[in-house]
Amino acid sequence: MKAKVVEQFLALKASAGSGKTFALSLRFVYLLFCGANPHQILTLTFTKKASDEMYHRIHQHLKILKDSLKNGDYAQTIIYQELIKEGLTHQDIEDHMSNIYEEFAQSKPRIMTIDAFFHSVLKKFCWYAGVSYRFEVGNAPINEINDEFLSQLNQQSSQQIARFCFSHNISLNQFLTMLMNLDKAYEEIDKSQQNVFLASSHDIAQEIIQKMQVMASWIRSVPNATPRVVKHFQKTSLAEIMKSPRFLLEWQEHTWLKKIDLSPMDNVRQEILNLLKDYFISKESEVLQWLQSYVQIYKNTRDFYLRKANLLTFDDVTLKSYELLYHQIDRDFFYFRLDDKITHILLDEFQDTSVMQYQILKPLMDEICAGNGRLSERSLFVVGDEKQSIYMFRGSFASVFEEASKRLQKSHLIYNYRSSPLVIAFNNTTFAPCYEGFVPSKYPKESASSEGYVKVQNCGEYPLEAAVYEELNTLLESGVSEDDIAILVFKNDDIQLLKEFINTKNPSIQLATEMSSSLFSKQEVKILLNALLFIQNRDSAFYLKNLLKLLGKAYNDDFSPQSALYTLKATRKPSELLLTLIEEFNIANNVSLKFLELSCDFLSIDEFLESLPVMMCSAPAQSNRGVKIMTIHKSKGLEFSYVILVDRFSGSQSDRQKFLYKYQEVSLHQIYYKMQGREDFDEEYKNVFEEEKKRKQQEELNVLYVAFTRAKEGLIVLQKNEKSAYERLSLKPTLQGVITPISKDSMIELESHSMPQVVEMSYHGKQSEFIRNEQETTSILNAAQWNNIKFGEALHSVFEMKLAYNMSDDDVHTRLLNRYGFYCNSSALSDALSKANACLQSEEFKQISRDKEILCEVSFIHQDKLYRMDTLLYNDKERIVLDYKSSLQGHENHQTQVQGYMQFLSSLDKGNPKADVKCRGYVVYPLYQRSFYEIFMF
């Protein structure tokens, strides 16, 4: 097929509810009909849920298309209609449908999160990044890292850090988090920036005071200077100057100074202003230099612990990928290797991309757009919406979408398929004045949605929680199902507040809370953890008292001697202990059961407790049924029939960031240390300060846009009269439309499935109970033995990569370095590759492999034992097994091993008298002159 991609390089702006997932999946399907291999299309999303949904949507489109072509009703399917609009013919679709469907079903498409993509990149180049090939992704053991970092500080450093935290009103944990963020920023910052060397801030401050004394002396000599004016100029410290700097800034325009001719002091005043700017710059330099020394100590401590645990966080994976690209590997080589058979890129939710993520992806995107490479037909499809960029606290930078779109054609999705006409019109009217170039959403006429419902209510002195309950009752009394209602709030704390209030008023209302909290912060998990710790150390009353408090018991209470706390043995598996404790404390729910599930992989309490700090596990939702209560951030990407949007219960969180970041386009250019009043004297700092303020205000607006656009049928907005989060929207009380319940049929269908079915599963055992590995050893190995074993594994890997995957020598060597570079040096791995190649190019191997299929790493179970053949060569007449060994030591055992394989292969034809298949075997010693030893049956 030579179908040409329409709009080859496209940036699609997709407002809320405009069908971006459909657009992305349509693009993917279209590319398949243009001849793209599914594995050549890289599709990146920001959540696992989104990537799973994308895969299933594409599969569903292909299946519907395939079935409709078979049934003859293809003209009515939306996917067929859209493909025809894109320029495909019916013949194109019909001729290739079956092959495309089968190829997609059998392939492994690269539809993944951006974190998963960077993970795969780091796996490919781990040797260059100094990371083990078998690294895992999880939470960093923050407490251990922090403790080790603090233990390395002397008394003076500890006191300096304590003073810094006190003066900046931050906790020690916030200080340590700041060090980690600075480390990341130092990696991103433009290294060409030149440091400005000034006098020390102390010396500059003294010079400012001297200038002020000159000015004060002069003002005292002015006849019409009032005592108030004279006193105002008598500043003896920098703190006093910064407390009331208006007289310096306004100068002749200041109310008190208008009648005084200040021109004799104009030069002195300008010198003071310049010195104040220099003071802030010098102070900033000193603070950053002081912090940088601790950043390096913290980084080294953190890296040590992560290497020890063979662990990286998602942020570490991104950072290591960035370091690879910009510091540790040639960029052309990096992207040449990375670009292996990627010809099309689809990027979802691109407004949520961080600067660092964009810097990693940009060269790959540039190469796709340039069209240079092995394949001429390439495309880039970027989807995003700046109005929905709400993750600045995670590092997202909305401007990257605009930057990425500069060289691309631009298009808008103008229809809103989610919301009712009234909700669409209300949101258009509300947000059009707030966004420059706002494109109003349109209501698709073919949609069967009802007219909708919109209500804005000022609560006045009426408590917000009471107003929420009233609106909820109104919806329920109007016939709206609990499952069709969502209450959106600004903070996690508001969720619990509303839940308790509604439960107090009406316990029969089912509530499903979605809180962004860790599993380990839940009450049930804290109870079980303290119980495990007490069982492990019954001499410690600390955990017992914690447990009593968590269970709501008195301090002097105790448990019965027959309690599991006293009778259970600490040597039992943690899963067995937890199950008994859950039953005794009567805390069986999805939180405690999730914790129980985590424990099933561990054999001892020690092992389980040690692993917990690095586990990443969010608390499960209490239920998917009932009225949903969640934060606006949690609701992004979701939709609900009726939304009750609640104003802030408390003020917005104060800004505790201590640094400002200056960007040039989408590159981090400079870090500024925040100091109160600096913007009055440093114009460049002021510009950065205002830019940061504008970005935060923009994100606050985006949060409101996301909240208002979650509603399908109806939107209810509850706002306070004062300090409302909606002030900038200038909302007026309104009531439009009527509440329309969702159809009764769907409600009945939901109710019929409301009770979960309980199924008791029979125990059939597990493989570990009856399958033994072919070779098991419990001996302790020294370093040399361990290196020899790893060399042998590397040798086996060469044969597998060559025979099973037909890989080039360069690719094989790179993968060997990644997997075994920690154990074997480069020359040893080159030797393994050379010896294996010699075997594969020998006349003996060519003879025994002629006209045969090749399988590698063939596993089978025989008499409850797991075996694995290195290589199997076969055709209709002969089966040949090869087993590779790096040493002649134990040759008799090697012979017996291969004879066992041959015996198994011969047994496959028992019962088939017509079968005449010979079985042969070889032990291959690649490191010796005579490599192939044929083995004969007993």
Give structural notes.
This protein is of the alpha/beta class and 938 residues long. It has five domains: 9-122 and 322-413, Rossmann fold (3-Layer(aba) Sandwich), CATH 3.40.50; 145-312, no CATH class; 421-516 and 625-752, P-loop containing nucleotide triphosphate hydrolases (Rossmann fold, 3-Layer(aba) Sandwich); 519-614, no CATH class; 770-935, no CATH class. Strand 19 and strand 20 (865-874) form a beta hairpin. Helix 1 (20-33) packs across helix 2 and helix 20 packs across helix 21 (492-505). The relative contact order is 0.08.
Counting copies of identical and different chains, the oligomeric state is single chain
CATH level-1 class of the largest domain: Alpha Beta
CATH topology of the largest domain: Rossmann fold
Mean pLDDT: 86
Strand order of the largest sheet: 11-12-10-13-16-9-17
Beta-strand percentage?
A: 5-15%
The secondary structure category is alpha/beta
Distance between the termini: 57 Å
* Secondary structure tally, helices: 36
Name given to the CATH architecture of the largest domain: 3-Layer(aba) Sandwich
Low-confidence stretches: 1-5, 746-755
Basic shape: globular
Beta-strand segment tally: 23
Major beta sheet, specifics? 7 strands, mixed
Corresponding CATH superfamily of the largest domain: P-loop containing nucleotide triphosphate hydrolases
How many discrete domains? 5
Amount of helix: 40-55%
